[in-house]
Amino acid sequence: MAVASKEITRIMATxxxxxxxxxxxxxxxxxxxxxxxxGEAPTTVEAPAEDVTKxxxxxxxxxxxxxxxxxxxxxxxxxxxxxxxSDGVDIYMSTSSAGGGLQxxxxxxxxxxxxxxxxxxxxxxxxxxxxxxxxxxxxLPHEKVADIRRxxxxxxxxxxxxxxxxxxxxxxxxxxxxxxxxxxxxxVGYKLPVIYAGNKDARExxxxxxxxxxxxxxxxxxxxxxxxxxxxPARDTIHELxxxxxxxxxxxxxxxxxxxxxxxxxxWKQVPIMPTPGAVGKxxxxxxxxxxxxxxxxxxxxxxxxxxxxxxSGEETVFNRTVSANLGMSYSVSNVFVSAGYDNVMxxxxxxxxxxxxxxxIRNKMIRPTTIPQLLKELIVEQAIAREALRLAxxxxxxxATGLKxxxxxxxxxxxxxxTQSGATLVNMMNLDLLIGSGGVLSHAPRRSQxxxxxxDAFLPEGITMxxxxxxxxxxxxxxxxxxxxxxxxxxxxxxxxxxxxxCIAPAGVLKKVTVLASxxxxxxxxxxxxxxxxxxxxxxxxxxxxxxxNAVIKPAKNLDVGNGxxxxxxxxxxxxxxxxxxxxxxxxxxxxxxDLLRIDKLQEWSKALNIYPERxxxxxxxx
Amino acid sequence: MAFAxxxxxxxxxxxxxxxxxxxxxxxxxxxxxxxSVTADTIVAKTHLPGNVKMLNIANVMGxxxxxxxxxxxxxxxxxxxxxxxxxxxxxxxxxxKNTVRSPLEGxxxxxxxxxxxxxxxxxxxxxxxxxxxxxxxxxxxxxxxVVVEAYATFVxxxxxxxxxxxxxxxxxTDGPADELTEDLIDESCRGKVLLGGSFVSYTTLNKAIxxxxxxxxxxGFDDKDxxxxxxYELGVAITGHEKKGITLVxxxxxxxxxxxxxxxxxxxxxxGLLASVNGATQIRAGVMRPEVVIPLEGTEMEKSSxxxxxxxxxxxxxxxIRAPYFGKLGSVEALPAxxxxxxxxxxxxxxxxxxxxxxxxxxxxxxxxxxxx
Lengths: 624, 373
Prior knowledge:
An eight-stranded mixed sheet of chain A has the order 17-16-15-18-19-20-26-23, with helices on both faces. The longest helix of chain A has 25 residues, at about 375-400. Chain A is built from 17 helices and 26 strands. In chain A, about 35% of the residues lie in helices and about 25% in strands. The radius of gyration of chain A is 26 Å and the shape is globular. In chain A, strand 7 (about 100-110), helix 2 and strand 8 form a beta-alpha-beta unit. Chain B is mainly beta. Chain B has three domains: about 5-15 and about 150-295, 3-Layer(bba) Sandwich (Glucose Oxidase, domain 1); about 50-120, CATH 2.40.50; about 310-370, SH3 type barrels (Roll), CATH 2.30.30.30. Chain B is about 10% helix and about 40% strand. In chain B, the strands form six sheets. Chain B has a 17-stranded mixed sheet that branches. Chain B has a four-stranded antiparallel sheet with strand order 6-11-10-7. The two termini of chain B are about 20 Å apart. The interface between A and B is large, with 60 and 52 residues.
């Protein structure tokens, strides 16, 4: 039955995570879109339910209970979420990372060139990259075959060779894939999707090699010339195949895909289900574009930590996403400890603990991942681990968010003394305007100042940076919404999703016998002014509410930079937040004191300056 | 009525245990519905494709890849023997011929005219799966495997190391609070599944391996011992594939932890029976916990408390699973609906737990585990 279209005023969006399905209801009221309710329920993709829609119905059901309204209606296949012109919602959409998300293997000729480009394309589309197969990856062909077979990816992205470049190496990679004859994780009896996005001259031979055996899609080369990437077509095809093949095989998804959509001019239009991180990436890109700023987002979950960034490189803005598959706060907590080491975790803890005791505690959190810290001391230890997880995730992000490697650079005489390598990281903490934190340990920290200090300690922003957290982790739903109704997505993002913590001001550069890193003069909107100094090794908070602004003049000491170059004055507006303005005089690069007593003293001093823990934390000691 | 859902580990006196025994690839099932099987009965088998070896014939012959096909002695898909000549160059006036020989026995799968590579495959690898349990076949999954069912005592652990094994259950400690020490292990433990109390050390574990013990079930184990035992730091909790000569099942967690007395009592009552044990643990999407299954021959009904799984109400037995009460057992005293502020300042849903000594404490609901009977 055709239904007349009408303006979209009521939106239901869900995110089917690996453990929880979260639903949000957005409505247009008084001319603006606002978040009305949120509901959640356990995800039901695995036994005994084995139907993702049950969790969706439960999460939406919670919203119905809380709102006292009905959004579910009887459909062809029983009760379903369905947009309708008269009641219920006008549009329904969903993202998904259930069942481990989208797992891919990528292949390229040279690991650091087309291999990395393929990796960036897959990560940007929201996949977890399990392996990068390359002609020069040091493995023998049979080892590559064995690895592909063992990992059982949902999809393979094959690239390699610039247009007009090598064909032989690309065919060799195709041969490896053919020999492995990989079988998909879900759905016995269907062919594995393989995307070819390499040298256009190798398309025919690749088709000959693989055409029969896999579901082959050929798209534009993702690295047509060495100097340029063209990741869009490969990313779009990954999304398309994710829907058609991977999702369609997962339990309950065929129905969920039918539900997601809305009526346009009387006919039903589907809204594709997006991989969760892909949707978050879309939103971050949209925000950066709209505000014309450089943005980083980090989502620290139980199993994985995702980092997103939009930085400018020359004339271009470049989006990057990385996923640190084994850095997280519950399932992966032991791995954070193993990767960072005992000393690195403990340097953030202002008391001593027995190593064997700490190890057992962390293991017990890993095997019972849903527990929460009851004691303040346990909270402090968890937040110390979070700092290290975030720091390591940033290191991995910096390694991949780089300029293109292998590109010949044109140098003039002026560059003679500045030898920069191709492939340098695009992550520039000084240029960063907005840093958004998300995930339980940040979004649900008992005090917002704890989240602020965790991201400052882990990411070490330089110069002037606005810090924010996602209030209830609804960036995935807003990401998919931004594809259909960008204005609604931005409105809700601004007003209900993002909690601005405040601006961090951190002078960076080589410290040469200075005690004052910068002097600051701020003029408030009422005309009153405040003068202060950013002292070496100190932190200071100046309260300034959400949306409030001051005009500031910041004069850094010689060699130090707050955004306009070493020693140069910075003049501009500083915006407040739930914490206010955070002046960080600890220096960049930042080093904690080596001496144990001094280190504990300093940690306590900074914690007090930001009021992150209750006073009694000063007396905490190790043990029970 | 106050009511809450909480995950718990199953400890069942007698329950119907259903095990899917699936092949990694399609194959042949060897038993039928209704067949009685022992743990060792092979229920299905298949062949995994053999490993692949790439051989660049063009390089070996020193000729362009396109010239090779006419010089090959074998066709794609043909069987080959080790050392068998695969092709030969024409040579120089019939002399100095260059012969390429097969490095393996198997199949000549394909040759690529562009790269000069031949794909050679080793013979298929046979794989067979056993029934794991003493029970009967209740379902045959066409070409994929079978389902074996048995009424059994079923105990889930919290963490394990090592894969499937089985043996006669032998109790080594007097009670759930006693450590399983080195001196308790002797020749009589060979081939057995041992039940200990609160703790086992790395030294004791080593002695057990040397003595030929199949598995150990205890309350706790130290993380530093785990590192020594595995030979590496375990990052992500996915286990089961370790080949350490023993399977370890922890019922409580890391550290010295008294085994829940119900668990100990129940397992002790099954001494002498054959226990199937699996240490495989996977703590992420698709959670998998280690298990001990003891089939009870001649039993055909469940014995359970009748409580629905996951339902917790006043009086339910619970175990605290986080400091400061970690490992303590008690019963639910109250389930207040309002959120309460913890020592950490987090505002969460809580419950009151009454310990055996009468003490009543408030803990977050997320920090208790239901002891399911």
